[in-house]
Amino acid sequence: MNAQENEIAQKIVRELNRGTRSISDNTVAQLLIAREQALTHYQQTPALRMAGAGQLVMQMIERPAAGARYALSLAVLILGLAGIVYWQSSNGAGGEMADLDARLLTDDLPIDAYLDKGFDSWLKRQPR
Q1: Is the pTM of this model over 0.85?
Q2: Burial 94-127, CB ≥16 within 10 A → b, else e
Q3: Helix (H, G, I), strand (E, B) or coil at 13
Q4: 37 with 5, same domain?
């Protein structure tokens, strides 16, 4: 923190401390009870951790059967995605559009031909 941020933080702390002096003893007791209940509830619920990947690795090391199950699931997912990509590329999906775009870009047609409503049907009738 720089000096200005530190000064602002100190002012905030002073104001909070001054405000807590005016709280009644009954309110302080109620706040303590609520705090204890919140802490008890917090300790009972599992905390969400960003180290989920680390836990997964540890689980795979400690229980090899579970690790193999995760590894097999991941392998099936990767192979499935690779198969879909291969099938799409070999099936020619998108190839017709690329061919049509290339033909349109290399032709010397006037712009009015592209705006004509029958132009699509004319393109479909043209031999390759």
Answers
A1: no
A2: eeeeeeeeeeeeeeeeeeeeeeeeeeeeeeeeee
A3: helix
A4: yes
